[in-house]
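Dear H.,

Thanks for agreeing to be a second pair of eyes. The structure we're designing against is below in token form, covering all 181 positions.
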């Protein structure tokens, strides 16, 4: 990537960053084949490959001293944690960000009713009120974020909700969540 033109490098970095943000912060339910335990090993392997692609150039330039530096423990910890964390980032891009864009472009509108469970997570930073169950059963993540007013109408209860959005073969993009009248 060091030999690519600067504009192309920035375009690739911006695109991957955008897909990562979409994967992390959008209400998207991946298709069953895009989520689950079957993705753990391939994503950790992909994360391992990315870790090697980061460490190998440093080793070539300055040997193990450039890789390890002065803190051996921190380096070993980083090398152990990098593959699963980079794998998670790859999964967000490949199983949530990319499919979200495809679904937004080629998906068909849908409107479905599901019985789901409301829950409050007071210690959570971003998503304090959640819906789980329904189409999210046995998926990762297994919840959709809802607003406090919707939670207060049905605290810690099973509730019928109407999900609206777009659906494709890669999953469902949730545009709105409302109570069933």
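And this is the sequence the design step returned. I haven't edited it by hand at all.
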């Amino acid at each position: 990537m060091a030999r690519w033109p600067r504009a192309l490098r920035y375009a690739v970095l911006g695109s991957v960053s955008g897909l990562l943000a979409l994967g992390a912060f959008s209400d998207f339910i991946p298709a069953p084949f895009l989520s689950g335990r079957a993705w753990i090993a391939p994503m950790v392997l992909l994360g391992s490959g990315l870790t090697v692609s980061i460490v190998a150039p440093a080793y070539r330039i300055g040997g193990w001293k450039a890789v390890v530096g002065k803190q051996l423990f921190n380096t070993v910890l980083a090398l152990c944690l990098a593959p699963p964390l980079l794998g998670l980032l790859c999964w967000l891009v490949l199983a949530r960000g990319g499919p979200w864009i495809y679904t937004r472009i080629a998906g068909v509108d849908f409107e479905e009713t599901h019985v789901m469970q409301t829950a409050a997570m007071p210690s959570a930073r971003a998503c304090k009120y959640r819906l789980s169950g329904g189409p999210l059963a046995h998926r990762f993540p297994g919840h959709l974020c809802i607003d406090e007013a919707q939670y207060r109408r049905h605290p810690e209860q099973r509730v019928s909700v109407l999900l609206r959005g777009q659906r494709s073969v890669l999953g469902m993009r949730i545009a709105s969540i409302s109570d069933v009248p």
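Two observations from my side: Residues 135 and 171 are 10 Å apart (CA to CA). The two ends are 55 Å apart (CA to CA).

Warmly,
E.
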